[in-house]
Design goal:
- Mean pLDDT is 74; it is low at 30-62.
- The protein is mostly helical.
- The chain has one domain (2-116): Alpha Horseshoe (Serine Threonine Protein Phosphatase 5, Tetratricopeptide repeat).
- 41% of the residues lie in helices and 0% in strands.
- The protein has helices at 2-7, 10-28, 77-84, 87-95, 110-116.
- It is built from five helices and no strands.
Length: 120
């Protein structure tokens, strides 16, 4: 997921998000409500809608699948996509429930990468 988002491979990122949503749905069961991933203080999930090809889907906090897996530096795929300026991938991640408030090991949220690299 990280590499697809970092490299701007939108179709692959969408496939991985769809597969993760199906897996998460199968594991949690259709009767149980899911909540947005939140791995830091502040929680909140968030995302915007309106993306073609993506369904708004929230994942369980303990899920390793979905839009918020962390790499060894605490970055999410959203951090990677923002840092590289892939707005279309960012949009899809947010629509899939990516948590823009997750802070990496440097104390930065994904949006900080956009500002740092002038992609805002």
């Amino acid at each position: 997921m990280h590499e697809a988002c970092r490299e701007g491979h939108i179709d692959l990122a969408r496939e991985l998000l769809m597969a993760a949503a199906k897996y998460s749905h199968k594991v949690t069961g259709s009767n149980r409500k899911s909540k947005s991933a939140s791995r830091n203080k502040g929680g909140g999930g968030g995302g915007s809608g309106g993306n073609k090809g993506m369904h708004s889907r929230q994942f369980d906090d303990d899920s390793l699948y979905g839009p918020n897996p962390l790499d060894y530096r605490g970055n999410t795929p959203l951090h990677d996509a923002c840092r590289e300026g892939h707005a279309d991938v960012c949009s899809d991640l947010l629509a899939a429930g990516a948590d823009q408030t997750i802070v990496n090991e440097n104390g930065k949220e994904a949006c900080n990468s956009c500002y740092a690299f002038s992609f805002s």
